[in-house]
Specification:
By secondary structure, the chain is α/β, with parallel strands linked by helices. The protein has one domain: Rossmann fold. The protein is 36% helix and 18% strand. It is built from five helices and five strands; from the N terminus they run βαβαβαβαβα. A five-stranded parallel sheet has the order 2-1-3-4-5, with helices on both faces. Strand 3, helix 3 and strand 4 form a beta-alpha-beta unit. The longest helix has 13 residues. 27% of the residues are buried. Bound molecules: manganese (II) ion (MN). The site of manganese (II) ion has 5 residues, from loops.
Amino acid sequence: MTRATVLLIEDNPENRYLVTFLLEQRGHQVVPAASGPQGLDLAARVAPDLILLDIQLPGMDGHAVTRALKADPQLRAIPVVAVTSHAMVGDREKCLEAGAEGYLEKPIDPETFIAAIEQFLTPPDEGSRQ
Ligand code: MN
């Protein structure tokens, strides 16, 4: 697994801490954002390999952030994995309808989290690997 830059859009400091810890332990770089607008701004500036997106955000929720990302030609190719705590019927569908490539439920399980995330991180150019 190559080192990836992951944009983490999450308003809860404890969740940010846990996810950052798990990703950094695997050698990935984490760029944190505490709100949707801040996340959109950083997505355009750092060109992350993956966006991990909390759905319950104040103001602009994760579905709105996903739609904004997918409406932007510069950003739409970045895989978005939605993370939500309301495990409600139809929640997964709502995330995928908004354009997210993946969906994870909280609470985050440290045992399975990295594997679930890394399936969305593909090498940029498989053909040129040595
Ligand atoms: Mn939240």
